Amino acid sequence: MDDGVAALRSEFQRVNQAAEKAGRSSNRIRVVAVSKTKPVSLIRQVYDAGHRSFGENYVQEIIEKAPQLPEDIEWHFIGNLQSNKV
């Protein structure tokens, strides 16, 4: 199993445990995989494992990566958006 998929599965286990502890349903929690600085090949592996929500903090990275990946990815901005990057 590749490292990205293993890390994703580990995080989902943590989310499920936390949800159970809090008395919440884990299917109501959205996990956004932070893909900033990660290569398209790793994002594709996580996508192929079934994940669809990814987070970037630079517009330039989304512009570069999005055309190389499937259109059904949900992109999210994470962190602070810098005014000089808008």
TrEMBL record:
Q: Name one GO molecular function term.
A: pyridoxal phosphate binding
Q: Which domain of life is it from?
A: Eukaryota
What PANTHER family does the record point to?
PROLINE SYNTHETASE CO-TRANSCRIBED BACTERIAL HOMOLOG PROTEIN, PYRIDOXAL PHOSPHATE HOMEOSTASIS PROTEIN
Q: Under what name is this protein listed?
A: YggS family pyridoxal phosphate-dependent enzyme
- State the organism of origin: Brassica carinata (Ethiopian mustard)
State the taxonomy lineage.
Eukaryota, Viridiplantae, Streptophyta, Embryophyta, Tracheophyta
